[in-house]
Amino acid sequence: MLIKEAHAIAGSLGYPSKMPGTSYGISAKACITGAKLNLVKGSTCHGCYALKANYLYKSVQQAHEKRIAGITNDLWVMAMVTLLKAAHKPRTVGLKLSPHHRWHDSGDLQSEDHLQKICDVASATPELAHWLPTREAGILHRFIKAGGQVPPNLTIRVSATMIDGSPTKAWGTTSTVHHEQEALGQVCPAPKQENKCGDCRACWNRDVANVSYHKH
């Protein structure tokens, strides 16, 4: 598949300055659980950053709409693999990316089929470490119950629903948000290093059970 064909189906990848590698997000307006939590004060989705500021730009909204529309395309997996391999292709000069990819810097899982496709993309790009944060524990539970397999290079972190809340015990890799209570597990170092990941790769590491983020 040509790059322009892949773009036409899946849209573009993101290159966040905070994180290593690439990212891929859809509109937070499409969140299923997140849309409900956004209305709950004290939840980790209340006042969602992906529903304001730069995310309100028309160009960003159009890009999100294109990406979410592409998910149901039968060629979406191939398109995503094409884009990721091209972006992370070794270069002697120019942009050199860390072999890491984050799913959903905005937005979340839409269905079990969506999760299966992400797993297929990860399986087809074993040279990359994939990280998928999600609040859709129900989708993940149904996917696993139906026999779904998560590839070893994809770390799925189920996010806690409430600030200072406990991580779920239903999944082995999780994340929480701390504010007035002590952090649990690995503390995200970004606030102490110009809001960047730096050398930290805890979110992508399955051996790290829980990553705790500062409320922001």
Major beta sheet, specifics? 7 strands, parallel
User: How would you spell out the order of helices and strands?
Assistant: HEHHHEHEHEEEE
Q: Which stretches are low in confidence, meaning pLDDT under 50 for 5 or more residues running? A: none
Gross geometry: globular
Q: What's the alpha carbon Rg, rounded to whole Å? A: 17 Å
Tally of separate helices: 6
Q: Strand order within the widest sheet?
A: 1-2-3-4-5-7-6
> Which structural class is indicated by helix and strand composition?
alpha/beta
Total domain units: 1
- Overall number of strands: 7
The chain-level mean pLDDT equals 89
Q: Provide the β-strand percentage band.
A: 5-15%
Task: Report how far the terminal alpha carbons are from each other.
Answer: 40 Å
Q: Can you give the helix content as a percent range?
A: 25-40%
What this model shows, in words?
The protein is an alpha/beta fold and 216 residues long. It has one domain. 28% of the residues lie in helices and 14% in strands. It contains 6 helices and 7 strands; from the N terminus they run H-E-H-H-H-E-H-E-H-E-E-E-E. It has a 7-stranded parallel beta sheet. Strand 3 (129-134), helix 6 (137-145) and strand 4 form a beta-alpha-beta unit. Helix 1 (3-10) packs across helix 4 (76-87). The radius of gyration is 17 Å and the shape is globular. It starts with a helix and ends with a strand.
